[in-house]
Amino acid sequence: MIKFFNTLSGKVELFSPIREGHVGLYTCGPTVYDYAHIGNFRSYIFEDLLKRYLLFLGYQVVHVMNITDIDDKTIKGAKKYGVSLSEYTVKYIDAFFQDVDTLNIIRANHYPRATEHIKEMSLMIKGLLEKGYAYEKDGSIYFDISKFPAYGKLSKIDLNQLKKGSRVESDEYEKANAVDFTLWKAKKEGEPYWETEVGTGRPGWHIECSAMSSKYLGKTFDIHCGGVDNIFPHHENEIAQSEAYTGKKFVNIWLHCHHLIVDGEKMSKSKGNYYTIKDLLAKGFNPLAIRFLLLSTHYRKQLNFTLEALEQAVSSVQRIRDFQYELLNHNFPEGENKDVLRLIKDEISRFTSGLSDDLNISVALTSTFDMIKKANILIIKNKLYQKDAERLATALNRMDEVLGVLPLKETADLSDKIKEKISFREKARADKNFQLADQIRDDLLREGIILEDTVNGVRWKHK
Ligand code: AMP
Ligand code: ZN
Question: In this structure, are 196 and 328 located in the same domain?
């Protein structure tokens, strides 16, 4: 039984998917006019945590994330640099996927791009015109929110000040201001345009998520996510467009992640108070420590970003990795300690019940670190045996299916090669060939492996 806080009902609800064992998940993706900052990645990592937990429980998840490659900002950027829209956006799309992989985010099943779904959007707009929910003015098409009585049900926006027929052109507009929004923008000089059944021009921002989510997930699907800034107007408008068009409920559960803030303010491009993933990597931070920091605060709480907190995340991740290293490399005596089975059972069950309670990550992380702490005490007391170490390593891997902070699979697979190099270096040291030993150590460092010569022999860890 999983419970989520649904923004739509304003309550914590039991989750029950439309099709047993399957989940349709739509998450609003990046607008590719610039590099994503770690505030954006707080949202994407929360969504990754949600998805990984559903997968951990055995659900099959179809995840769709849109790429907004046309809007006011991308057009402005392309104009500024005198390049075509796609030449401008491709750089940021590539960088986005690089960051996704670096942060060990599981890729979505589909990444539909707005510019590749103009047909689907124009069809939907045509339907909305035919049903009387939309109107045309000077070649642009607007959604008439007065025709959709449920408008405001997600954001609970006050409709009393609604002035019938007041319109807005831009994609993002004043909060707390309910107005008719653009579905289609008439062709403007110097802007990209398409010729469609609803006219010559380009789509507004909101329509892409309605058209693309239904294409890949159906008219009604299970979960839709984004940051809290998406609630109004973006998600409110998505509901209006989709429900007016299909006559069916659009989404069952809406989950929204709170902002990542710096010195009390939302991290954002316009304020200039941001770090990109590359900025932090250049400072020498391990990407999975960035991941850990972004997931370790509950998604419905603001996350205050500081470099000190990131330093702490580095040591937390190192603690988990050191424990894994110990389990895999220490020579434990043959046998087993039955208490370890109970320890694993208790901590995995605490981990699961925490996450099932609206993704309570604090409980899940406490259970992970308690398991590590208690097992380490057993190791010190010589009460941990080979069988226990294997079981603990399996349990840790299981938890990491959700956390995703153990070394990436590719590097984990490299460990045989690394071990070979390490033992080669050991031999060189024993032979007093220190020049060769140092050379191997430097080679490994270039591969991201740090060697430490300790009294218990050589140890390695990821940079
Ligand atoms: P954008 O590229 O601005 O459309 O944003 C992409 C996603 O990042 C959306 O889901 C936003 O809600 C989210 N987002 C933007 N800034 C922040 C922030 N400071 N903290 C958390 N999420 C954010
Ligand atoms: Zn969206």
Answer: no
Give the CATH number for residue 326: 1.20.120.640
The reply to whether 357 and 453 lie within a common domain is no
Measure the CA–CA gap between 119 and 440, rounded to whole angstroms.
57
Of the ligands numbered here, which is closest to the C-alpha atom of 38?
A: 1
For residue 122, tell me if it sits in a domain.
Answer: yes
Ligand 1 and 31: CB distance under 6 A: yes
Question: Residue 210 C-alpha to ligand 2 middle, in angstroms?
Answer: 8
The answer, yes or no, to whether any atom of ligand 1 lies below 6 A from the CB of 230, is: yes
Distance 327 CA to ligand 1 centre (A): 39
Q: What is the domain range of residue 320?
A: 307-403
Taking the C-alpha atoms of residue 296 and residue 361, their distance in angstroms, rounded to an integer, is 6
Query: For 303-307, which contacts have Cβ atoms below 8 Å and span 24 or more sequence positions?
Result: 303/42, 303/258, 303/259, 303/260, 303/261, 304/261, 304/262, 304/264, 305/38, 305/260, 305/261, 305/262, 305/267, 305/275, 307/283
**What does pLDDT average to in each consecutive run of 10 residues of the chain (463 residues)?**
97 98 98 96 98 98 98 95 97 97 97 98 98 96 94 88 71 70 94 96 97 98 97 96 98 98 88 93 95 98 96 97 93 95 98 98 98 97 96 97 80 65 83 86 79 68 66
Based on the fold, state whether residues 242 and 328 are members of the same structural domain.
Answer: no
What is the whole-number distance in angstroms between the Cα of residue 269 and the centre of ligand 1? 10
Indicate the number of domains in the chain: 3
Decide: 226 in ligand 1 pocket, CB within 6 A: yes
Q: Are residues 251 and 368 in the same domain?
A: no
Q: Are residues 321 and 391 in the same domain?
A: yes
- Indicate yes or no: pTM above 0.70: yes
Instruction: Kindly state whether residue 286 falls inside one of the protein's structural domains.
Output: no
- Indicate whether 59 belongs to any domain: yes
Tell whether 159 and 12 lie within a shared domain: yes
> How many Å apart are CA 313 and CA 294, to the nearest integer?
9
